[in-house]
Design goal:
Blueprint: H1 15-50, H2 52-67, E1 72-81, H3 85-92, H4 101-104, E2 109-112, H5 118-124, E3 131-138, E4 143-155, E5 175-183, E6 186-197, E7 203-210, H6 219-235, E8 240-249
Length: 250
């Protein structure tokens, strides 16, 4: 595991972080295009077998089925780093939290509304939380979307609804960072990172993903790709994934 110094993590824009994000992006695009091509192939096969209008009906059903919000994701992850708790709290409370590397890493722009530079924040661990906006464009720039993201640092408090952070009640939390994301006014994701000092030095982070929204079937392949590169993205930022459990429910 990469071992950052006691006062500084690898910069969020370091080459190793960018490399992992780039590999994820290429794989995610390949999976998305493959899914789209499969839908087109199914439509053409239906047209050949059933004639045009029945084939159109089959294609419409497929598209609608892929877009219907059908499942939720929840999970817990335990991370370990050699950095001190204050630096970890600062990094999770910045505009570029480690667990969202695949979001800020592929965004066209990250607007940090009220906090200093994220690398400086992570170094001294002084961030009280921040508000940021991730900007994305697609369809050759014809469409765009903004993801509004906010963090709130609560010192010495565990996550309200339990989760992985309650497995070490003998080690009081240094802080819990609540992370909330919204897109178009609707909940996008919610996380809670409970930060504790490790018994043998360094820091343990219990990260909880809360099921705040339903996802459509198109997101399943993207989720599989994200899981493949998740540990590598965190390792590039100085964290080791000790435990991870993710479940999908209807």
């Amino acid at each position: 595991m990469p071992s950052p110094s006691a006062s500084q993590f690898p910069d969020a824009d370091a080459s190793n972080v960018r490399s992992v994000v780039a590999r994820y992006r290429r794989a995610e695009r390949a999976v998305s295009w493959t899914l789209a091509l499969l839908v087109v192939a199914a439509f053409l096969a239906a047209v050949v077998a059933l004639s045009f209008w029945p084939g159109m009906a089959v294609g419409t059903v497929l598209v609608v089925a892929l877009r219907v919000p059908a499942f939720r994701r929840r999970g817990s992850t335990r991370l370990r780093t050699d950095a001190p708790p204050a630096a970890v709290v600062g990094q999770f409370g910045s505009a570029k939290p480690p667990n969202l590397a695949f979001q800020w890493g592929v965004a066209d722009g990250v607007q940090n509304d009220d906090a200093p530079d994220s690398a400086d924040t992570a170094t001294d661990g002084s961030a009280p939380g921040t508000d940021a906006t991730y900007e994305f464009s697609y369809l050759l720039g014809l469409k765009s979307v903004e993801l509004d993201f906010s963090t709130d640092v609560r010192e010495g408090v565990a996550a309200e609804d339990g989760g992985a952070g309650e497995r070490d009640p003998d080690r009081p939390p240094v802080a819990t960072v609540e992370m909330e994301g919204t897109a178009d006014g609707r909940s996008w994701a919610s996380y809670a990172a409970t930060v504790r000092e490790a018994a043998d030095g360094g820091t343990v982070v219990d990260l909880e993903l809360r099921p705040t929204r339903r996802l459509d079937l198109r997101r399943l392949p993207q989720g599989w790709v994200g899981e493949r590169y998740y540990a590598a993205a965190l390792a590039a930022q100085g964290y080791e994934v000790v435990e991870r459990s993710v479940s999908v429910t209807v």
